[in-house]
Amino acid sequence: MSMKNIAAMMLSFSACANASSYDSVKHIEFSYTVDNHKDYFFQDSHRYSKQPTLESPSNRYAVYLQEPELTIADPELPKYLQVQDGKDWDYLMGQTYTILGLSVATVGLMTLLPESITKWDEESRDLSKLGSKWVDNVKAGPVWDRDEHFLNYVMHPYFGGVYYTAARHAGFNEFESFLYSATMSTFFWEYGVEAFAEVPSWQDLFITPFFGAVVGEVMFETEQEIIASGGEVMGSKRMGDVSLFFLNPVGHIHGWVTDAWGGSAELQFNNSPWFGNYEAASFAMDAGASYDRQFYGVELKIGF
């Protein structure tokens, strides 16, 4: 046998032996170790935490996805339903301006009511010489008036309570709110607006601030209870809204006007005839108006 044939046979036996060694199935095992000593790590805004499990001793850690918690805050109540943490003089002054406007509107409404209700005769409804009538009425009072019991013993305590709740919402305590109610009912209304039409009365001077403080605190506490119950009365949201309005009408109207308007207002008293406006005074006297040396007025500046 030649050397070439012998070498070819040896190569063939070697190739068969190597091929047969790869025909058997071998078990290949891979292992790795995770080097992570932290309790968790962050990826793509999600937190992955490792927790020990009891099901499998070999599986010491489990990886799970923890979604971020979604917190939905309750909408903030409007300011007229809130009680200020401290004494908010600006808010109280804003409500006082609103009371002034409502008082002027109330006087205008009372001039349209029959004399049997308001006890205002034709002379009291006369708008000429308001300054002299105010002086005469203040000097003549106080007296025991002839108003209807509904006005004296229902409406006056209610309006005293309205003054009281305005101060309570501005962050003032019970006694301070009583002083505000007494000041507004006595000097602003009884010796102020109403004195232009009638003589101040004993009933109004006593009943409005004192009974008003009691009624006002009941109104205030009732309002807070309704708010705490979700603004419902007897399961009705509409009835709750109506009740909240009448328990704090000044705050509601002030809030509505402020939100709708967004301007500013400045109020000041003035005793200069015709507010010092020479052209307006000349025009009025040329039109036949009489000159009254006693002048008391209110100047309201509104900005937009």
Provide a concise account of the structure shown.
By secondary structure, the protein is mainly alpha-helical. The chain is 54% helix and 10% strand. The longest helix is centred in the C-terminal third of the chain and has 27 residues.
What does this molecule look like?
This protein has 304 residues and is mainly alpha-helical. 54% of the residues lie in helices and 10% in strands. The protein contains eleven helices and five strands; from the N terminus they run H-E-E-E-H-H-H-H-H-H-H-H-H-E-H-E. A three-stranded antiparallel sheet has the order 1-2-3, with no helix packed on it. A hairpin with a 2-residue loop joins strand 1 and strand 2 (46-51). It is globular, with a radius of gyration of 42 Å.
Order of helices and strands: HEEEHHHHHHHHHEHE
Low-confidence stretches: 19-26, 36-51
Taking all residues together, what is the mean pLDDT?
76
Q: Report the C-alpha radius of gyration, rounded.
A: 42 Å
Q: How many runs of DSSP E, i.e. beta strands?
A: 5
Strand order of the largest sheet: 1-2-3
* Total DSSP helices: 11
Please give the largest β-sheet. 3 strands, antiparallel
Strand content: 5-15%
Instruction: State the helical fraction.
Output: 40-55%
Content-based structural category: mainly alpha
Structural shape: globular
What is the end-to-end distance?
122 Å
Secondary structure blueprint with pairings:
Blueprint: H1 3-21, E1 40-43, E2 46-51, E3 62-66, H2 89-112, H3 115-118, H4 122-125, H5 130-140, H6 149-169, H7 174-193, H8 202-228, H9 237-247, H10 249-261, E4 264-270, H11 278-286, E5 297-303
Antiparallel strand pairs: 1-2, 2-3, 4-5
Helix pairs in contact: 2-6, 2-10, 6-7, 6-8, 7-8, 8-9
